[in-house]
Structures are given as C-alpha cells and as structure tokens.
Write a structure and sequence with these properties.
Blueprint (H helix, E strand, L loop, with lengths): L1 H16 L15 E3 L2 E3 L4 E4 L12 E4 L5 E4 L8 E3 L2 E5 L2 E5 L3 E4 H6 L3 E4 L4
Antiparallel strand pairs: 1-2, 3-6, 3-10, 4-5, 4-9, 7-8, 8-9
Length: about 120
C-alpha cells in the first residue's frame, strides 16, 4: 500500500512539474507568421498597452528567465513598453512571440488589446 501511495504521489509531482515545460522545448522559428489576418515578422515591435486583469497585470504575457522559459505572468509594470520580437514558437496551434524579457501569446493578446504590433525595427 505504501508503494502504491508513493508511486501515485511521484506521478502527480511529475505531471505538475511538466506543465510549464511545453513551450520551452519547441523549436524556434524566424519565419513570418500570420496572426489575426496580419503578418508578423522578427524585428516587429510589441507595444504593451494595458493589462486585461483587474490589477492591471497581463493575462497573455509572461516573464522569461535566462533560458527563454516562461516563469510567471507579467505585471502591470510593463505597460507602455516596446520590445522587438526575437523569434517565434508554436504549440498546440498557438503562436508565441519572444522578446528579450517576455513571451506573448500573440493571437489572444491582440484580440484582448493587451498588445499592439508595430511594423519595422525599433
């Protein structure tokens, strides 16, 4: 019985740890992507407007660590910031744009008006 409980607990721990790892293991893409009938390419500027959560934080933008892995939801401090897109990743049909410090779910963020894509270099 103790072995069964230990295996169940280990299985749950492994599953909960693996949830945030899915996007970080995907391959980088530098090709232009089409999001919401708009072409977005590397070098375009992500302009962070206002977050859509009640406290002003961003629902579809996450902070990155040094290994380009999302670690937490972005707070309201990034409002009115501009960052160029470095590369893209796609997981489960969702396109993510990576900047130096943030990863953005481009389709959802554009629809909720959290971000605006400005064409061209900074």
């Amino acid at each position: 019985m103790k072995k069964l409980m230990f295996l169940a607990l280990a299985f749950c721990a492994i599953l909960s740890y693996g949830q945030g790892m899915s996007i970080s293991l995907k391959k980088k893409s530098y090709a232009p992507v089409f999001v919401e009938n708009d072409s977005i390419k590397v070098g375009d500027i992500v302009y962070f407007k206002l977050g859509s959560n009640l406290d002003g934080s961003f629902k579809f933008s996450q902070d990155l660590n040094n290994f380009n892995e999302p670690i937490r939801q972005s707070g309201s401090k990034i409002s009115m910031m501009k960052q160029p897109i470095k590369f893209f990743k796609e997981a489960d049909g969702v396109v993510y744009g990576f900047t130096k410090y943030f990863v953005v779910n481009l389709g959802a963020a554009i629809l909720s008006k959290e971000v605006e894509i400005l064409k061209g270099k900074k």
